[in-house]
């Protein structure tokens, strides 16, 4: 964790002291990471579900189209899922994805931006973790589509903070019943740097 923080600070320092601005070229690159607070929603009322906290980390590009609009594609690892049951017998559904959000970014106030757009996620692992086991979950769908909306505040040195909600549009297959839907629902809090 210390190495990741050191790498983040190094990139941000380089971006502050670099002579040539990516903004002048019409594109900025960046890194980001943070906290995920996720759950499943849909036909899950009969299940005792709670939140799962995990992380997301990855890279992004901001393609500046005009002063009032830019496009921001991202490539992220995102830990999602839910908890089932209560202590002491609860288990965690760990659904881990590589996600590709493509966001439209609009300025609201100086430094504050509204971000919204679609996302596709590719499942890389699905496990049910209990105190005694860490078993693969069968039947989880490999593609996950969703919509994102959130706010981003960017400081003058390129460091930014984000808050975002991802609404899953497809059934994950987590209920094991074709007649019941369970979609991802994820709140993300991020810290990042553009350089």
pLDDT < 50 runs, ≥5 residues: 15-22
Mean pLDDT: 87
Give the helix proportion (percent range).
10-25%
First and last CA, distance:
21 Å
Structural class: mainly beta
Task: Specify the biggest β-sheet.
Answer: 8 strands, antiparallel, barrel
Number of strand segments: 10
Q: How are strands sequenced across the largest beta sheet?
A: 1-3-4-5-6-8-9-10
- Percentage beta strand: over 45%
The helix tally amounts to 2
Radius of gyration from CA coordinates: 18 Å
Gross morphology is elongated
Spell out the helices and strands N to C. HHEEEEEEEEEE
Explained architecture:
- The chain is mostly beta strands and 195 residues long.
- It contains 2 helices and 10 strands; from the N terminus they run H-H-E-E-E-E-E-E-E-E-E-E.
- It has helices spanning 2-17, 22-25; strands at 27-42, 49-50, 52-66, 69-84, 91-109, 112-129, 134-136, 143-154, 159-168, 182-194.
- The two termini are 21 Å apart.
- The relative contact order is 0.22.
């Amino acid at each position: 964790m210390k190495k990741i923080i050191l790498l983040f600070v190094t990139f941000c320092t380089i971006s502050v002291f670099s002579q040539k601005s990516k903004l002048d070229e019409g594109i900025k690159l960046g890194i980001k990471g943070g906290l995920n607070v996720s759950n499943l929603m849909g036909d899950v009322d009969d299940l005792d579900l709670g939140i799962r906290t995990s992380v997301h980390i990855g890279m992004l590009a901001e393609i500046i189209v005009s002063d009032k609009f830019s496009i921001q594609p991202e490539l992220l690892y995102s830990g999602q899922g839910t908890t089932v049951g209560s202590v002491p017998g609860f288990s965690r559904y760990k659904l881990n994805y590589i996600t590709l959000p493509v966001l439209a970014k609009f300025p609201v106030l100086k430094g504050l931006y509204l971000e919204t757009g679609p996302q596709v996620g590719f499942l890389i692992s699905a496990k049910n973790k209990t105190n005694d086991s860490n078993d693969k979950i069968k039947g989880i769908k490999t593609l996950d589509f969703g919509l994102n909306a959130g706010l981003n505040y960017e400081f003058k040195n390129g460091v930014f903070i984000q808050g975002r909600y991802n609404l899953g549009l497809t059934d994950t297959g987590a209920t094991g019943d074709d007649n019941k839907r369970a979609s991802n629902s994820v709140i993300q809090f991020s810290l990042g740097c553009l350089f």
